[in-house]
Amino acid sequence: MIVVMKKGTTRAHIANVSARIEQLGCRVHISEGEEHTIIGIIGNGRPLDCEQIERMDGVERTVPILRPFKLASRDFHPRDTVVTINGVTIGGSQLVVMAGPCAVESHDQLLETARAVKEAGAQVLRGGAFKPRTSPYSFQGLGEKGLRLLAEAREETGLPVITEVMEPQMVPLVTTYADILQIGARNMQNYALLHAVGEAQRPVLLKRGMMSTIEELLMAAEYILSHGNDRIVLCERGIRTFESYTRNTLDISAVPLLKQLSHLPVIVDPSHSTGKWELVGPVSRAAVAVGADGLIIEVHPHPEEALSDGAQSLKPARFAALMRSLRPVAEAVGRTL
Ligand code: PEP
Ligand code: MN
Hints:
Layout: E1 2-5, H1 11-23, E2 27-32, E3 37-42, H2 50-54, E4 59-63, E5 83-85, E6 88-90, E7 96-100, H3 107-120, E8 124-126, H4 144-157, E9 161-164, H5 171-177, E10 180-183, H6 191-198, E11 204-207, H7 214-226, E12 232-236, H8 254-261, E13 266-268, H9 270-274, H10 277-289, E14 294-298, H11 316-332
Parallel strand pairs: 7-8, 7-14, 8-9, 9-10, 10-11, 11-12, 12-13, 13-14
Antiparallel strand pairs: 1-3, 1-4, 2-3, 5-6
The structure holds phosphoenolpyruvate and manganese (II) ion.
């Protein structure tokens, strides 16, 4: 349930209502809107007497939230959430492109890619140091050395870095290097990990599981939110279907749907959703056209030699051309890039 406070209500009234809710054994999340303050009630499973709360000073009305996700829902937080990290704003009018290699492979590979994507207009550098691979015999990432290289690339280019964290125990280590913590598709329902990043002092990119529904994605975001971290960006990265010409099937309608249901920013991963570099451009333009707040794109200086995901990686020149082609699409939907 949410409590909508009256326009211009006092802090004392908000504090009173919050205290009463907590006395009843529930938790409180306050969202200050332009006109109304909304108090979200995280219940304890017992029914709450809303009439009693409605009688309190400063309360306009109470509204039940029927969906299972509460803090992630737009009912609780009507305005768009904007996530800011080191000068980069995700979810505002400017689109954010995160780009870089699937995996950090070497100093030269990463630095060359970082310089190229920055030059082309990317605002965040991506690169995996811990890689969730289907086969235990595939390259598993450089681990902490990869994190150090990412920090070096940030130092040189000024680009904030995003990298995947795969286990709760690794959250402190990855947090010391990364600006944004990435939760991969395979870990979307790793609740211990969601709990750990919920307590971390970093924004989280939460990728949709390849076999997860939109509601499950939002429930995963709810875990992070309920542990205190509200700096979450959702990512549609394709789901598994019967189609085999693409690696996954991009659920393009997930973008406007997530934006209707939730206040969290939504970005699209055209690389993992298609698995083919030739499809990355058209799919990126479609994502921007349907209202995505950004993209995360794999770029490699020599895709044919990549240790992972070469087939879907763009060469730097192709990435630069894609960025140019995105600008008119962004403009057409009232965004900048
Ligand atoms: C990635 O972005 O590096 C990745 C492994 O993607 P996903 O978790 O979406 O498969
Ligand atoms: Mn990859």
